[in-house]
What does this fold into?
Amino acid sequence: MTVKNIVSDNTTRKNPVKILQFGGGNFVRAFIEDFVEVLNDKTFFNGNIIIVKPTKNGDYSTLKSQNGHYHVVLEGIKNDKPVSQTKSIKSISNIIHSYNEYDTYLDTAKIPTIRFIVSNTTESGIAYNNQDKFKESPAGEFPAKLTQWLYTRYTAFNGDPSRGCVFLPCELIENNGAQLQQAILQYIDLWQLSKDFKEWILNSNHFCNTLVDRIVSGYSEKIANNLYKKSGNKDALLVVGEIYHNWLIEGPDFISKELPFSETDLDVKFVNDLTPYRKLKVRVLNGAHTAMVPVAYLAGVSTVREVMEQKELSKYIHDFLTQEVMPIMNNDFSEKEIQDFITGVITRFKNPYLEHKLLSISLNSITKFNTRLLPTLIEYYEQKNALPNHIIFSLAALLVFYKGKFKGKEIPIKDDEKYILFIKKQWKDFDEDQINIEKFVNNVISNKLLFQADLTQIRGFSSLLSQYILAIVENGVLNSLKHVKPTP
It folds into this structure.
């Protein structure tokens, strides 16, 4: 068989660029790009994407070498039958590195057809840093880079209101659109940019809060090899996800007319308030992911599906959801609605077609704990005056995970270096008997850099966390799980 690079069999659509996308990771490529292909096939949208690399490390060289072409494979159960779809992505016009190609990046601000700004820069991406400089090429934080881009656009079009944009951030943080706008306004003040520019941001641009949902497992060598055998195409960027998808957008009515999802079979809804939906999804699906990762990985399991196939681990996730998440969601949804959502999530976790690697979910786990588990922990304690044992066990496993080694095996940790170094320093001091487990725990949970709440104020928390850490280190995860009591 003749090996063909995917580029040779694909032609990029000849559409005007309508979307500037920050981030090109697995999730956004299997979510936004898939949706845009459907819009282009089924509606009048006719728009392409430019992808911007927002961070310094990495270069998207593979994506560039394939001219932005790759396959999305969606698999799952639909109407009780197995479904598999392979889609060719051909709506990406360019890939730009904001550091290596800064001038080219700014030049995209002068493209009149760009209307939508999409981003997926992880839960720590929408941030403000008062050390960022306007004249940097580029400034450090993602919202700072975006402010530079917007100022270039404002200047190029002389403040034309029609050249404002619609922002659809996909980051899993509360009020992601509002937070992105707030960060941009802070940079305008920090850099003393014009009042007229600020008014243009406020009046001619629209920042939508959104909530995305699709499990994306990433690259599959097995599926890539099958594709190669069938077509001769070699695709290094093939990405696998589940059939299930949902996108909730909180924004003005006119956006639904510009993005005609209603003319497709995509599950996209425009809502007045996505707060309760976000809480349910983040606490249940994302919370379960974050709770399971360190626990299951230290138990020797590598994928989400394997977690659900392992008796003790699947029980742990079930108990976490029903005993700790479900009781504090009753103000927003009925018990049946919550139970149905939990059942659906468990079914999705068991998807036989997905190989969702725990290590891929472990990226930025400290931030994920803060956004996905910490609110449940605090609300449960405040409402029930009791400790959520399963969340605390997960935190214990997370701190052991961040030691970087367990049972003689190295653990690859991907997170902010300052988090990793701090926790490893505590482990070093503990192993050298400079501090005991109580001091170790107190140093960690009182660190405001790590946690967005003072966990030392929760009665009994540090003691139980200390017990769980020692149990995991001495007896392993599965043996320790046997002694995790049901949450009252």
In short: The first strand starts at residue 4 and ends at 5. The chain has two domains: 4-271, 279-481.
